[in-house]
Design brief:
Number of strands: 8
Order of helices and strands: EEHHHEEEHEHEE
Strand content: 25-35%
Keywords: Transferase
GO molecular function: acyltransferase activity, transferring groups other than amino-acyl groups
Number of helices: 5
InterPro entries: Acyl_CoA_acyltransferase, GNAT_dom, N-acetyltransferase
Protein name: GNAT family N-acetyltransferase
CATH architecture of one domain: 3-Layer(aba) Sandwich
Helix content: 25-40%
Amino acid sequence: MTVCTPKSPIRIDTSNLELRQVSLNDAAFLFELLNDPDFLKNIGDREVRSEQQAESYLKTNVIKPQKFDYMGLWVIHSKSEQIPLGVVSVLQRDYLENLDLGYALLTRARGKGVAFEATSAMLEYLTQIRNVQVLDAIVKPNNTPSRRLLEKLGFDTDGMVTTPENEQLCLYRYRKV
C-alpha cells in the first residue's frame, strides 16, 4: 500500500538547532555517533567500524522508503557551531504499537538542553503538523537521564516491553491532548 503525504519539511528549526533528515553525507557523523560509548551502552552496538560501513548502514537500514515521509533519522545540527550533535528518530518498531520517538547525542552535546529542545520540536511537529495522536518511547531501566527527559516531555510510563533480542525496556507513551 502506498501512502501519499505532503513532503516533509527540509528542516525543523528551533532557536538553537536545525533538524533535517539524514543523508549519505552524514556517514562520518553517523560513524562517530554509533561508536560513542554511551550509544553502545544505552542503545546498542550496530557493528559499524568505519565510515564505509556507516555509509552502507545508512543505505541498508536508515535511508529507505517509509510508511510516512517524516519517519527515519533526523540529524540535530547546532546553528551556532555548525556541527551535528545527535539524532532524533521516528521509527515504527515491530514490537511497538505506535511510532517510536527516540534520540541519541554525542558526548559534546549532553547536559546542554539539546535533547529536550530537539525532541520537543519533533514532538510538536508530529502532533501539531502531522496530527500523530500517540507516540511510544523505549528506554533501558537504568537510563535515568532519558527517563527524566521523557517525563519532562509529557510521556507517561506504560509498563515494560520485550524486544526481539529479549531485552526488557521501559515503555513510555505520549497521548496528544
